[in-house]
Amino acid sequence: MNRNVVLGLSAAVIAAIAVFLLQSKDQPGPQGHSMVPPDTTAIAQGDPIATVALPASLSADAQVGKRGFDAKCAQCHGENAAGQNGVAPPLVHKIYEPNHHSDAAFLLAAKNGVRSHHWKFGNMPPVKGLTDADLKYIARYVRELQKENGIF
Questions:
Q1: 129: CB partners within 8 A, 6+ apart
Q2: Total count of domains within the chain
Q3: Which domain holds residue 111?
Q4: Is residue 19 part of a domain?
Q5: Is 112 inside a domain boundary?
Q6: Which CATH number do you get for residue 97?
Q7: Among 137, 141, 152, which residue's Cα sits nearest to residue 55?
Q8: What is the distance between the alpha carbons of residues 80 and 92, in angstroms, rounded to a whole number?
Q9: pTM for the whole thing?
Q10: What is the pLDDT along the chain (152 residues), one digit of tens a residue?
């Protein structure tokens, strides 16, 4: 192939990429998921957002996690992670399935806080007084609730 043809084709490809990048720069892109939070306008402020079915029993790790959740997380995320309208989302929701939010994501959110990105309840502040081990047990509890409610 002629060197000038190769250079011309390379320049055309680079120009096409540059045009694409410039045109898409100001366009809103996807937020990384197609999961939409439910409409909560008919739910009273502070009421649970999700209906959570409880497992017949919890593993030993999840029982420890439930105690930690009740002490540090339920104040915002509600009893049994059902959420509280206007306060914090339910963690028993498809948005928080393991393939979208890993246990590590839960751990980081609790340790560092997280910017609001799925729900419009505002940013989540860091949760004080929880160790990594505590958070792993809490994640186990949430995962067992999710599994009982068909969220894998």
A1: 72
A2: 1
A3: 60-148
A4: no
A5: yes
A6: 1.10.760.10
A7: 141
A8: 8
A9: 0.77
A10: 566 655 555 544 454 444 444 443 333 333 444 578 889 999 999 999 999 999 999 999 999 999 999 999 999 999 999 999 999 999 999 999 999 999 999 999 999 999 998 899 999 999 999 999 999 999 999 999 999 999 98
